[in-house]
Amino acid sequence: MNSLVEAEIGDYLIKRLHYHPYDCGTIVECMRSLARMSGGDLDEPFRWAGLGAGPEARVASGITDLALGGGGCETSDYAIRMQIRDWLLKNPRRGRL
């Protein structure tokens, strides 16, 4: 777990994608569990996990890449928003980051 990367992801979700700060805790928790399932942590190397980690983890790694300033993400904004919507519907609110 890298708290700086998680803070960057939270800032990206709030400032660029305009999600509520209380929803960001849930989103980051889902991303953290997907990173653990792919064999790592939610840190800088996870941004290159891609489809090798699974379809949901591809979206999570794409969000991580975009939050850390990368621009080469093959995941569309629509797919990112739909996956985040599913995470928010299926998981309880975790609180702020």
Search tags:
97 residues, mainly alpha
Short description:
This protein has 97 residues and is mainly alpha-helical. Helices cover 59% and strands 0% of the residues.
Account of the protein in words:
The protein is globular and about 30 Å long. The two termini are 13 Å apart. It is mostly helical and 97 residues long. It has four helices and no strands. The mean pLDDT is 89.
What is this structure's SSE topology?
Elements (H helix, E strand, L loop, with lengths): L2 H13 L5 H17 L17 H13 L9 H14 L7
Helix pairs in contact: 1-2, 1-3, 2-3
Low-confidence stretches: none
Series of secondary-structure elements, N-terminal to C-terminal: HHHH
Specify the helix fraction band.
55-70%
Measured between the Cα atoms of the first and last residue, the distance is 13 Å
- The residue-averaged pLDDT reads 89
Query: Structural class of the secondary elements?
Result: mainly alpha
User: Major beta sheet, specifics?
Assistant: none
> How many β-strands, per DSSP?
0
Q: How much β-strand is present in the residues?
A: under 5%
Shape: globular
Radius of gyration: 12 Å
Number of helices: 4
